[in-house]
Design brief:
Strand content: 25-35%
Structural class: alpha/beta
Shape: globular
Radius of gyration: 21 Å
Number of helices: 12
């Protein structure tokens, strides 16, 4: 029988410690595995996506163990396995980061995945890598089999599909014999994630230089073992901050305002909506206030769109979210599924080709909604309960394990009431 989670109406009030940034942990694991030594990464939460990246570096020869939220990675035997199967689960980050890494090690690798991952685009690699010594065998998605060793040179990459392709190349290119350049053929989206990659790599001793059209990466560099402390996750914190904005008073601790995460923009956007936002170092508090509609360009912050749409539901006027077309190829078509969630609950949401148009309402009503096996849809439904006159019953409650296994526990810290049947 399929499980459901029921969210009861509530007034958000409390303090949450931001979970470790999933994006940051992915990057640190790969850098550590490439360091040819022993590194620690802390804190780490074992979401399904992070388990996928751990599984993949282990498939290439790294050894890991986790104890008390500290992950130890021994990269001294990385690339000792010359054939490998890399099961990426449902993690697009893992897949796109690891393809060039395995190719740089000359590994004959088969990449597999589950959920919607086999359907998600990898054409940028299957177009670019064969010119650089790597054969790619695929029928259009996963499984993907690669063989050969990646060569240095100039890589022409579009910037408007996913920054994950650029991150994957940035990890791999320093390992090659010669220098390389990544040249953008279209404007970059999600630039904050590229900056995060470069910042993490720098902590492991790797230098990347920005150029007029992209990045220059020297070859023959060496990742240096280090003990790495992860950022708090702004993408996940956004759910609690929006709960405060629409219905109460919520504080998130460990939200680093100097983070390279693009999703830290949630604080500025909530101010623009009209919420009371107070930041003090790594502590941010958001209080309910009258909200007004705004226009949001989501090109650099696609992960925030579902929860921003929840906020917009309670803002006077009509909010427009644009440049979010990449959301159609996430765990669900998040433009469609976000609109369906909110309209089922009594919202006024119109689906656009590249985003959403949301007209504010006083409150939502209870209903049964489809979680679409998408962690961000389920967590958005939970926040809707902060301004709802009846209970919300949502399917796919355990999809939150993909990114945030402690979500329900942290939700209870702000008085959120959830029950799974």
């Amino acid at each position: 029988m399929k499980n459901n989670v029921t969210f009861q109406p509530f007034i958000p009030d409390g303090t949450v410690f931001a979970p470790p940034s999933k994006s940051d942990v992915h990057r640190a694991i790969i850098c550590a595995a490439l360091s040819n030594g022993v590194c620690t990464i802390s804190p780490v939460a074992l979401s399904e996506d992070i388990k996928a990246t751990i599984r993949c570096v282990e498939a290439l020869g790294a050894v890991t163990k986790i104890e008390d939220n500290v992950l130890t990675v021994d990269g001294s035997r990385m690339f000792s396995k010359k054939t490998a199967e890399l099961d990426c689960g449902e993690s697009g980050s893992t897949l796109r980061f690891m393809i060039p890494v395995a190719a740089a090690g000359g590994v004959e690798a088969t990449f597999t995945g589950s959920g919607r991952l086999p359907e998600r685009p990898i054409g940028i690699y299957t177009d670019a890598l064969p010119e650089k010594g790597v054969d790619c065998a695929t029928q259009g998605g996963l499984p993907l089999k690669i063989s050969g060793r990646l060569k240095s040179g100039t890589y022409y990459i579009p910037g408007n599909v996913s920054s994950q392709f650029i991150t994957g190349l940035l990890f791999a290119l320093p390992l090659l014999k010669g220098d390389s350049d990544i040249v953008l053929t279209s404007p970059i989206q999600s630039a904050g994630y590229i900056n995060m990659t470069i910042r993490t790599m720098s902590k492991f001793g790797i230098e990347v230089d920005m150029t007029d059209k992209g990045w220059h990466v020297r070859g023959m560099q060496q990742y240096i073992p280090t003990d790495y402390v992860t950022d708090g996750d702004w993408s996940q914190s956004a759910f609690f901050l929006v709960a405060g904005a629409v219905g109460g008073n919520v504080t998130v601790v460990n939200a680093n305002i100097d983070s390279s995460q693009g999703d830290r923009k949630i604080a500025a956007l909530l101010r623009e909506f009209g919420a009371e936002v107070h930041q003090d170092g790594g502590r941010i508090t958001v209080k309910k206030a009258p909200l007004s509609a705004i226009t949001i360009d989501a090109a650099q912050i696609p992960d925030l769109v579902p929860i921003l749409a929840v906020c917009a539901c309670f803002a006077e006027g009509t909010t427009k979210i644009i440049n979010a077309e990449r959301l159609r190829i996430k765990e669900s078509d998040r433009i469609k599924t976000t609109a369906a969630l909110l309209n089922t609950l009594g919202g006024k949401v119109t689906e656009l080709p590249d985003g959403l148009e949301i007209t504010g309402v006083e409150s939502l009503h209870g209903a049964e909604v489809d979680g679409c096996n998408d962690h961000r849809i389920v967590m958005s439904a939970a926040v809707c309960a902060a301004k709802c006159d009846g209970e919300i019953k949502c399917s796919d409650p355990w999809s939150i394990n993909k990114s945030y296994p402690d979500f329900y526990k942290d939700y209870s810290e702000i008085c959120g009431l959830s029950a799974i049947d």
